[in-house]
Amino acid sequence: MAVRITDECISCEACASECPVAAILEEGNEKNPFDDIFYVKPESCVECVDHADTPRCAEACPTEGAIVWDMPYTSDFNDYYASKNEEGIYKIREHKKKGLMLPSVKEQKFIAEVSMEERESGANVSDF
Ligand code: SF4
Ligand code: SF4
Fold this sequence. Notes:
Elements: E1 3-5, E2 24-25, E3 39-40, H1 56-60, E4 67-69, H2 78-87, E5 94-95, E6 99-100, H3 116-120
Antiparallel strand pairs: 1-4, 2-3, 5-6
């Protein structure tokens, strides 16, 4: 990913329309593994690289702690995303020919300036 939406989300809908790559799904969407919060598709999120200076979803979000950093969507974190997908934390897209769209199939851009510490601790994206 990229960024992750937490239980703090109040489903206000402010973020989804701001995403330049349509990576955010509303509650109730069949591709969203959660019933009561919005969801960022990690295989699609590019952390707004080449679109904006900072993540647009976090700029729009009124709720402290609702959008936090996650790991880069790169091959180094393939096992991480595979296991979280099994746990149901993510619902990574299954491509007809390529299979599960894990980072080993397609990596995504990420903001290199965000430290691993911030990512591992799930720091607020709005503080970036
Ligand atoms: S960081 Fe950017 S690309 Fe990722 S979900 Fe938020 S708005 Fe979309
Ligand atoms: S803007 Fe924040 S609180 Fe509103 S739906 Fe998105 S993540 Fe949830």
